[in-house]
Amino acid sequence: MDSYQTPLSSRYASKEMSKLFSNATRFGTWRKLWLNLAIAEKELGLPISDEAIEQMKAHLDLDEAQMKVAAEEEKKRRHDVMAHVHTFGTVAPAAAGIIHLGATSCYVTDNADLIFLRDGLDILIPKLAVVISRLSAFAKQYRDLPTLGFTHFQPAQLTTVGKRATLWIQELLWDLRNLERARNDLGFRGVKGTTGTQGSFLQLFDGDHEKVKALDKRVTELFGFPYAYPVTGQTYSRKIDADVLAPLASFGASIHKMATDIRLLANLKEVEEPFEKDQIGSSAMAYKRNPMRSERACSLARHLFAIYQNTLMTSSVQWFERTLDDSANRRVTLPEAFLTADILLTTMQNITEGLVVYPKVIRRRINQELPFMATENIIMAIVKAGGDRQECHEKIRVLSHQAGAVVKEQGGDNDLIERVKQDEYFKPIWGQLDTLLDPSTFVGRAPEQVDEFIAEWVEPALKPYAEALKNVKAAELSV
């Protein structure tokens, strides 16, 4: 290949998302917009023939010859929409005189973009439900496996592997809610004319305001939108783009946090992403198992954050009824945001379908820290056996510092419990030490929280996607 192609479509993204933002889909959608405009205008009394409508219906998809004609026309006319008006007319000659009747370019470009935003969300939302479902199964499987909790990435009280996963799931549930809201809130630009006044359509219908309103409503209905934005300039407000890409960027933040956690856990050798049999972790270090999927997710999530900033800047500089400095930016921004989110979802589905947990490594790390965490339990046990709290506290403090020195200064294992077992002061509770050091007694309600969270929050949220979840294939990661 001797020309640049975006890796988003050529290397990573799904076929359905790449197709949605393809030229074939874009220009075919323009033709559908011209068809439905003509249908609505005919229904409202404009002299448009049945032959014109039928010819338009028969040529909604562009073949290679049509794409070539349109490209040549655009070179001559320096206007993509008018190039396609002319090209459509060559295969629908009976409609050539009424294609685009009363409309401005933004009738097709803006309405098409709103269709792509809606359809793009329809692709993403079920995929997000799949990731949540996969991760929920993981949380249930490890609901009660104790693991060392971290605050400030320093050892803290125990949690469970499943409970930690619910932290990721909860954020993804919020993302699901936000994407659903954005999708359901989308309107249509509809039929608004050159500066949004519908002046050209008022002229077409001889000043009949009700017919102009009916035209706007009918075209909106034909494309399945619940409503049209009540007022626009030449374009729909670019704030809509920001409203759609904001939840995508927020989703990216959730993925970045989760993928970073997995990368850190991989370093600890407690949890790993899938690693294929013939996969190579490093060209130089054959032993390595780099978390490349999670690294890819973090990398693309940052790109998604950056894309969102474009929508804010573009929205803020739209002068009066419109300015064209949004056009080139949006041609890149909108497809890339959806392609990137799509890639993130495929990647995370692949990761969550094959997460590997190493319980023995987890237990070893717990054993290194649990003796310190168990000191309060030991103190309470001594008090119950008739000892003095303050005296016990001082003895535990001294032994803890000695054990800490072995760990930090000598690089040895935590031997606090061995020191307790050798100190006659603690003899009354030696028989209780195994119970006092049982990790499952340090996780609080973590297992129950997993059960309750999935039953009360996850399952209701996934219920609308039950059919979609039944036959989902395992995600195959692209190169």
UniProtKB/TrEMBL annotation:
<dbReference type="Pfam" id="PF10397">
    <property type="entry name" value="ADSL_C"/>
</dbReference>
<keyword id="KW-0456">Lyase</keyword>
<comment type="similarity">
    <text>Belongs to the lyase 1 family. Adenylosuccinate lyase subfamily.</text>
</comment>
<dbReference type="GO" id="GO:0004018">
    <property type="term" value="F:N6-(1,2-dicarboxyethyl)AMP AMP-lyase (fumarate-forming) activity"/>
</dbReference>
<comment type="pathway">
    <text>Purine metabolism; IMP biosynthesis via de novo pathway; 5-amino-1-(5-phospho-D-ribosyl)imidazole-4-carboxamide from 5-amino-1-(5-phospho-D-ribosyl)imidazole-4-carboxylate: step 2/2.</text>
</comment>
<dbReference type="GO" id="GO:0005829">
    <property type="term" value="C:cytosol"/>
</dbReference>
<dbReference type="GO" id="GO:0006189">
    <property type="term" value="P:'de novo' IMP biosynthetic process"/>
</dbReference>
<protein>
    <recommendedName>
        <fullName>Adenylosuccinate lyase</fullName>
        <ecNumber>4.3.2.2</ecNumber>
    </recommendedName>
</protein>
<comment type="pathway">
    <text>Purine metabolism; AMP biosynthesis via de novo pathway; AMP from IMP: step 2/2.</text>
</comment>
<dbReference type="GO" id="GO:0070626">
    <property type="term" value="F:(S)-2-(5-amino-1-(5-phospho-D-ribosyl)imidazole-4-carboxamido) succinate lyase (fumarate-forming) activity"/>
</dbReference>
<comment type="subunit">
    <text>Homotetramer. Residues from neighboring subunits contribute catalytic and substrate-binding residues to each active site.</text>
</comment>
<dbReference type="Pfam" id="PF00206">
    <property type="entry name" value="Lyase_1"/>
</dbReference>
<dbReference type="InterPro" id="IPR022761">
    <property type="entry name" value="Fumarate_lyase_N"/>
</dbReference>
<dbReference type="InterPro" id="IPR019468">
    <property type="entry name" value="AdenyloSucc_lyase_C"/>
</dbReference>
<dbReference type="InterPro" id="IPR004769">
    <property type="entry name" value="Pur_lyase"/>
</dbReference>
<dbReference type="InterPro" id="IPR020557">
    <property type="entry name" value="Fumarate_lyase_CS"/>
</dbReference>
<keyword id="KW-0658">Purine biosynthesis</keyword>
<dbReference type="InterPro" id="IPR008948">
    <property type="entry name" value="L-Aspartase-like"/>
</dbReference>
<dbReference type="InterPro" id="IPR000362">
    <property type="entry name" value="Fumarate_lyase_fam"/>
</dbReference>
<feature type="domain" description="Adenylosuccinate lyase C-terminal">
    <location>
        <begin position="370"/>
        <end position="454"/>
    </location>
</feature>
<dbReference type="GO" id="GO:0044208">
    <property type="term" value="P:'de novo' AMP biosynthetic process"/>
</dbReference>
